[in-house]
Structure formats: structure tokens, C-alpha cells
Amino acid sequence: MDYLHWFDLMGIAVFAISGTLAAWRKQMDGFGVLVLASVTAIGGGTLRDVILDVPVVWINDNSYFIAIFSAALLTILLLRKRLTIPNNTLQFFDAIGLAFFVIMGTQKALDLGTSNLVAVMMGTMSAVAGGMIRDVLCRDIPMVFRGELYAVTCIVGGVVYILALHAGASTLLAMVLGMTSLFSLRLAAIKWQ
Amino acid sequence: MDYLHWFDLMGIAVFAISGTLAAWRKQMDGFGVLVLASVTAIGGGTLRDVILDVPVVWINDNSYFIAIFSAALLTILLLRKRLTIPNNTLQFFDAIGLAFFVIMGTQKALDLGTSNLVAVMMGTMSAVAGGMIRDVLCRDIPMVFRGELYAVTCIVGGVVYILALHAGASTLLAMVLGMTSLFSLRLAAIKWQ
Amino acid sequence: MDYLHWFDLMGIAVFAISGTLAAWRKQMDGFGVLVLASVTAIGGGTLRDVILDVPVVWINDNSYFIAIFSAALLTILLLRKRLTIPNNTLQFFDAIGLAFFVIMGTQKALDLGTSNLVAVMMGTMSAVAGGMIRDVLCRDIPMVFRGELYAVTCIVGGVVYILALHAGASTLLAMVLGMTSLFSLRLAAIKWQ
After folding, report:
1. Domain total of chain A
2. Using one digit for the tens of pLDDT, what is the confidence trace for A47-77?
3. B137 and A140 in contact by Cβ < 8 A?
4. Residue numbers of the domain that contains B145
């Protein structure tokens, strides 16, 4: 399922852009940009894999860093030209990345035999912990603690995925249902706010 | 030794209450409460298990999260009714939880063949690292760096446990001695301050 | 190669001094000093080993903590007598420690079969992540994000090491080349600034 990897890299790139923007706002140097872009993009997945005691996903796959570094470089070039990526474009792709990270993280935990409760937590952690580390390094209180709907959306998506599996859906159907509901909820939340 | 698990869960619940109170003070949302309660309660044990490279204690045991979520929910309900848990009640149970975490963490490291020095550090880390992560997420300097007696009490408890083992005490006797001395020292420290 | 261990301990001690100075500036207590000294000295290597899923380097070797605690104690004694370690002396030994950490971290990752890109990142992380955790615990924005040359020097050293290996140099020669170039660059950066 090669297209899954492309969704993954797209989520990684969008998260890297958000890390780059945070580093830019804090007037960090080039190294700060690289660290914040990387930590935002792969921090959650790394924490998940370390806790689940499986090989960290990027350790044998350079494509993650190519996605991160390209996204960071492009963002810096745009910022230097005083261009900005429109916020709703960013949020749209962020919602896709979020849907992907939560469901894949939940599935990975289930595959390793965790309970449903722990699996949903692992899925949510995959998606939000990177941003939390970004905010800690920027000396901000994690944004995710201030905008309830972001994290709740992740939890709902994970729960839908697991309910679909329990109702007898195939993994693929459950994934589509989980991701679609998470993605729609997230778009709805953006519209409302 | 099933009653050990109940002590463990009591410590977990008290630490979850302290995380909930911190989130409340910082006016975080419901997700912030859950994350801070969880991180305070199981952050130290998770870090210990990841460093010792053994399965994380809560990965196959939902009772930890049931204890955390119940404690957080109860605390929020009390806070909303403008009721508070008396501070000395909290400190009393915190001292029991602390005694338990330090000694069990020290024993776990010793079982894996670490030196006495590393075992005491692991025991202390089990007990204090969760609160340190809580404080970092709240953008505070860790409280444990400002009130010397808290951490020193942990170290003393771990040392008593190991000295008792070296003096030929059974594991059970050494545990009782270590926990009792840690608990008494902690109560004495609370009285004095 | 026993002398390698002595270089390692020297780097550990210098990093522990920098953690102690940070704790002193923030008026932390004795426990804060021990935690900051330890985290600065072994935080980067611990993170590297946890991510690479190999036993953490200090778990069966007390010499790390003896080096850390001696360095912290000595620093505190000097500070209490209003003596200071001259800044350029510190920077000189820091440059040696840095050169050592980066190259040994890069080599450790390569030994485990990672790509060159991941290996250089692991080497750099070994050297700078401890200081980043120190700064987060002190509630500062990581220093390494504000002084570009520090981290870039690490990356250059790692790249030189890998290029030398690819050019057919023996491990020992590549190590000498990598460490020397990193060390010289770092001294040059100190002179310039």
C-alpha cells in the first residue's frame, strides 16, 4: 500500500511547516528551524514507537527527512519573499495529516496487542505530541491544551476506527471511516471557530 | 501480591490529582487536564521503563488509566463545586504514593541487574520525573528543584531499602523499612515547613 | 581502546559543569544541581540510545555518575568561594567533549546500520540534546537555537567523518579527521565571536 506512505509524508511535511513557522516567529537560526521542523513532524511518532518498543519509523527511511527538510526550506524561502502559505490551505492539509497519523498510530498499537483504550491514546499521541514538544521548545504552553476541539477530534477519529472494526468492518473500511470522520469533524471545527 | 497493585493505583491517583490541579490553575481545557493528569501520574514510570528497556507498565493494563481518569474527573467535579481537597490530606496520600514509587522503582532496576547507585536514581526518577514534566508543560521551573526535602526524602528511602537488603533483610522487610522511613521523613518534612 | 573512555568522561564532566552553572544561576537547590548536571551530561546520549534501541550507556557503568557528581561538587565548591572557571578554559574542554560526542554518536549509529544522514543527526543529537533539555528545565529557549555555529560545527564534523570513511580511511583515521576538524572549527568560531 504505497499510497499510504505518500499520505504519511504529506502529513510530515505539513507538520514540518508548522514547526518552521514557530521557529521563524521566535527568530531562531537555521539549526533551530531544522530541529523544530523535525520535532513537530516526527516527535509524536518517535515517542509512540519508543513506548511501544518498536523500531523508530524514520531510522531506516530517509524519505522522512527529505520531506521535512524540503518543507522547511520552501517555507523559509516563501517567508523571506514575504509570501505566506494561506492559513486555510495549511489547515486543510493539516486535517489530512492529522486523520492519517491518528488512524495509523491507533492501528499500530492494536497490531501490537494493546487494549482499545491504549490504542486510541497512542494514535492521539502520534498526532499531537510533536506539536507539544515544539511548543515546549518555544517556551509556550502547548497550543493543544487551549483549543479543545483539536485533540477531541483525534480521539473521536480513533474511536470511530475501533468501533468500525468491532462492527465487523475490514481494516481498510474502518480506516476510511475513521479518517473521513476525523477529517470532516476537523473541517467543521475550523469553519465554526 | 495483589495489594501492591492497590498501593500503586493509589499513588497514581494522587499524582493524577496534582496534575489536574496544575491544569486547572493554568485554565487548560479538558484535554489539557487529561494529559497533565496522565503525565504526572505515569511520566516517571514510563521514563524509567523506557530507559531500562522493559515493557512500559501501563501498556497492557487499563487499570492505570481508569485510576487517572476517575481521579481527574472527581477533582474537576469538586473544583466546580468550589470544594477543595484539604492540602494535608493530599500530602498524606502523596507521601504514601511517593514511598511506594521510589521503592518499587529501585527494586525494578535492581532486578534488572543495575548497580545500587543507578537503582536509587531510577527509583527517585520514577517518583519525581512525572511532576517535572507536568511543570515543564505548565511552563514552570520544576517544583522539585525548589523544595530540597522532597527529592532528598526519595533518595534516603531508596538508600535505606538497599542498605537493608545488604544487611541481609528479606525483600519484603527491606521494602517495609524503605517505605516506612521515606513516609515518616516526608511527614516530618511537611510538619516542619 | 581505553583512552576513548577517558575522553568520554572528560566531555561528560564539562557538560556536567555547564548544567551546574545553569542550576546555580537559577538558584536551584542541591537536587536541582544534580538533575541539571546529569541531564546536560547524559541527556543527549540517553536519547540517542533509546531511539537506537540499544542499552543506555550509563546503565551498567557507574563511572559516568562519578564524573558528573565530582564535576558538580567541585563547581559548587568553587562558586561558593567566589572562584570561577575561566570561560575560555571551559570552552576549550567543551570543544574536545563536543568533538568526541559527535563522532562517537555518529559511529554508533552507523554500526547499527543507519543511513549516513541519520547517523550525522544522531551524532549531533548526542552532543546538543542534553543542553536543550537543560535549557527547557531552566525555562529558557535552547541556547543552541540562538548561536548557529555550535550545531553547524557538529554537523560538519559528522560529515567529515563519513566522507573520510567513504574515501577509504580506516575508522581510526576517519575519527581523528572528524574530531580534529570539528575541534578546530569550534575553536575558530570561539575566536571570531
Report:
1. 1
2. 999 999 999 999 989 999 999 999 999 999 9
3. no
4. 2-192
